[in-house]
Automatic annotation (TrEMBL):
The lineage of its organism: Bacteria, Pseudomonadati, Bacteroidota, Flavobacteriia, Flavobacteriales. Residues 539-551 have a biased composition (Basic and acidic residues). Belongs to the N(4)/N(6)-methyltransferase family. The keyword Methyltransferase applies. It catalyses: a 2'-deoxyadenosine in DNA + S-adenosyl-L-methionine = an N(6)-methyl-2'-deoxyadenosine in DNA + S-adenosyl-L-homocysteine + H(+). Its EC number is 2.1.1.72. Residues 65-358 form the DNA methylase N-4/N-6 domain. This is site-specific DNA-methyltransferase (adenine-specific). Residues 521-538 have a biased composition (Acidic residues). Keywords: Methyltransferase, S-adenosyl-L-methionine, Transferase. GO terms for biological process: methylation.
Length: 551
């Protein structure tokens, strides 16, 4: 018992655990050059470090995202072959943990997160997700058949699947949508007796184990007498069976002499089919499908590891409804955003790499214009909508030539006001009539940021303009000594001093970029075209190794 008790306390541990960065909550700045379509759209494509971008979203989007899909770098081991194995996993886990924690904060109470991964890190990731989301909130793992034929050059096993881990924000009462019934699934429903309720299929009336009260003799319309099979009983009590007969819900066969079966009408069955955990390439596509889709948007530089649109369609269909918010913080070539757009969801995509511009932007632009690739025809996509393109603001503070922290000169007055509102937990919402109301945390709590020297006269003018019950936080570079504590409902803080110990400033990249990596010594060179026949799947090991981690 003691041993079992200790096992229950085990927790995944690694080098550097607990040393999470103190992130600066940046503001987002729209870049109109790459925004496209409906100017009132809520769809966002963010170009910037995904950890900083998630932190930037936290204040406004916490608890609002219904479905998160991410496809993080798989950490194949080759990218870190100049480290020992413990460091390799530690680096990867240290990069994943703060991102997962922020993603959990963004999930709505009925939301879920879907994480693509392969066997190199899937088991470590499962334990890490148990820690972050809670083990009871683990829904299941999906096996996606990403390849449909073996790579004969492999010396051991040719990997043909990826895993998708699924966690709910709260598993209690959590439900997924059903899959639509296929023509194959409804083929067995017929109307052999012209029942006015329409097509039906029949199910076994017998069930085990035996309940004595449900073992009785049934006389068929032809006069034949039948009992349940040995070791079984009928599903229905004798009285309930008679009710089913009167309602024409029992089928005795075309001649009336068959073993009774329960009629189940297509019109009464649950709307859709419960999905299974094995998703074959025939159902949701494979890697070669994904590459063909990606080529349409950038044939010069095909993204190394895209996912097929049908795979993401299934995730979004199961985990959200029209109008819900979908987020992908490793958006890559833009598949999640493109599919969410076509399916009538709102979305946020985050990408650090240049493919935010070279791949995502042209892809989403074509989606708005009505492109007909991927799932377009299946969902009858005709175009429309739009998206806004954002970048992260620079760090609010920088060091001068003397090594002292000062306000960044890249911030204008509006940017500074928005940044300070975010830093202090206020929503930036400038008043059109009162200059000092730049943001609020409630109906009566406001914030005002200024770079000017604050005088008593200015403070008195503001105080006179305030209504009873209102409070104000003023952030400024300097103020007259007499201003401090002059009014009980006005607090004054000096910048940048109030910010210095809160977070890391001056850091724009929390990724781990791998450049010119060594290849495996035993990796054989070969002509890919000779190995691929009939669109065989090839795992792009070299491309995966050189992929910038956590772009």
């Amino acid at each position: 018992m003691a041993q079992n008790k200790n096992l229950q306390k085990l927790e995944l541990t690694w080098i550097g655990k607990g040393d999470e960065p103190k992130l600066e909550p940046r503001i987002l700045i729209e870049n109109p050059e790459y925004s496209y379509g409906d100017p009132n759209t809520e769809n966002m494509l963010i170009h910037g470090d995904n950890l900083l971008a998630l932190k930037a979203l936290e204040q406004d989007y916490a608890g609002k995202v219904k479905c998160i899909y991410i496809d993080p770098p798989y950490n194949t081991g080759n990218a870190f072959e100049h480290y020992d194995d413990g460091i390799e996993h530690s680096l990867w886990l240290n990069l994943m943990k703060p991102r997962l924690e922020l993603l959990r904060n963004l999930l709505s109470s009925d939301g879920s997160i879907w994480i693509s991964i392969d066997s190199d890190e899937s088991h470590y990731l499962k334990v890490l997700c148990d820690m972050v989301f809670g083990r009871r909130n683990f829904i299941d793992e999906v096996v996606w058949q990403r390849a449909f034929s073996p790579i004969n050059l492999k010396k051991t096993l040719s990997r043909s699947h990826d895993i998708i881990l699924v966690y709910a924000k709260d598993s209690i009462g959590f439900e997924l949508n059903k899959l639509p019934r296929s023509a194959e699934a409804t083929k067995s429903y017929k109307n052999l007796d012209n029942d006015h309720r329409g097509p039906w299929t029949s199910g076994d009336l017998s069930v085990g184990p035996i309940i004595e009260s449900k073992v009785y003799e049934i006389t068929t319309p032809s006069g034949r007498k039948v009992l349940p099979p040995e070791g079984y009983c009928w599903r229905l009590s004798k009285e309930r069976f008679e009710e089913y007969v009167m309602d024409n819900r029992i089928w005795f066969g075309a001649k009336g002499d068959g073993v009774p079966r329960i009629k189940r009408f297509l019109s009464e069955v649950k709307d859709g089919v419960t999905p299974m955990t094995l998703w074959t390439y025939q159902e949701v596509g494979h890697n070669q499908d994904a590459k063909k889709e990606a080529k349409v948007f950038n044939s010069d530089s095909v993204f190394a590891t895209p996912k097929p649109e049908r795979l993401i369609e299934r995730v979004i269909h199961l985990a959200s409804n029209k109008g819900d918010l979908v987020l992908d913080s490793f958006v890559g070539s833009g598949t999640t955003a493109a599919v969410a757009h076509k399916m009538g969801r709102k979305y946020i995509g985050i990408e650090l790499g240049e493919h935010a511009i070279t791949h995502c932007y042209p892809r989403l632009k074509q989606v708005v214009d009505g492109e007909q690739g991927g799932i377009s025809k299946a969902v009858n996509w005709q175009g429309g909508g739009g998206f806004k393109f954002y970048t992260l603001a620079p760090s609010l503070l920088k060091k001068d030539k003397f090594g002292q922290w000062i306000m960044s000169d890249e911030y204008n007055a509006d940017m500074l006001a928005a940044a300070m509102a975010k830093q202090e937990g206020f929503k930036y919402n400038p008043s059109e009539t009162q200059f000092w109301k730049q943001g609020n945390s409630s109906e009566q709590d406001f914030i005002f940021t200024t770079t000017q020297f604050l005088t008593v006269q200015q403070l008195e003018a503001i105080a006179e303009d305030m209504q009873a019950g209102e409070s104000l936080l003023i952030c400024c570079k300097a103020f007259q000594t007499e201003c401090k504590n002059k009014f009980p409902n006005i607090t004054i803080k000096k910048i940048p001093q109030l910010l210095l110990d809160r977070c890391e400033f001056g850091k724009d990249d929390y990724s781990l970029n791998i450049v010119n990596l060594p290849q495996e010594d035993n990796q054989e060179d070969y002509d890919v075209e000779e190995e691929i026949e009939n669109d065989e799947e090839v795992v792009d090991t070299k491309e995966n190794n050189q992929k910038s981690l956590f772009d």
